[in-house]
Amino acid sequence: MNWATFFRSFVYAARGISWVVQTQQNMRVHVAAAVTTMAMAAWFRLGGWELAWVVTAVFLVLSAEAFNSAIEAAIDRIGPERHPLAGAAKDAAAGAVLILAIHAIIAGIVVFGPRILQQWKGSGL
């Protein structure tokens, strides 16, 4: 195994993640939601399967947004002219992000909902 090539692949991946965060507003929104979600997971001391579901949902959304951004960039690089297939590809990629974001919201409601209600009832509000 060529360790220099192996290490370089991580550098390229980090550069790609950095590009997506710096250039894509939706990724920044997802990162903010991910940080908030992970803070809530720590606050409520999630463990086991609940933590696994939350972490998986977070990483799926972030990964989907990175793929979506890569697809959009590649299509935009081809040329400025509109084509129905280019639009369909971009829409499908955005749809994948939406599907996983909905999944993450549902997972968040299932995992955090009872805890938030318990906190709310315990506060006397």
UniProtKB/TrEMBL annotation:
**Co-factor(s):** Mg(2+)
Which residues bind a divalent metal cation per the record? 72
Q: Where is the active site?
A: 65 (proton acceptor)
What main location does UniProt list? membrane
Q: How is the cofactor bound?
A: Mn(2+), Zn(2+), Cd(2+) and Co(2+) support activity to lesser extents.
- According to its UniProt record, where is this protein located? Cell membrane
Q: Where are the transmembrane segments?
A: 52-71, 92-117
User: Which residues of the sequence carry a binding annotation for substrate?
Assistant: 65
Membrane-topology annotation of the record: Multi-pass membrane protein
Q: Per UniProt, which keywords does this protein have?
A: ATP-binding, Cell membrane, Kinase, Lipid biosynthesis, Lipid metabolism, Magnesium, Membrane, Metal-binding, Nucleotide-binding, Phospholipid biosynthesis, Phospholipid metabolism, Transferase, Transmembrane, Transmembrane helix
GO BP annotations listed: phospholipid biosynthetic process
Does the keyword field hold Hydrolase?
no
Q: Name one GO molecular function term.
A: kinase activity
GO cellular component annotations, sorted alphabetically? Answer: plasma membrane
A Pfam family that this protein carries is DAGK_prokar
Q: Where does ATP bind?
A: 12, 72, 81-83, 90-91
Q: Entry's InterPro entries? A: DAGK, DAGK_sf, UDPK
Q: Which Gene3D superfamilies match?
A: 1.10.287.3610
| PANTHER family xrefs | DIACYLGLYCEROL KINASE (PTHR34299)
Report the family membership: Belongs to the bacterial diacylglycerol kinase family.
* Official protein name in the record: Diacylglycerol kinase family protein
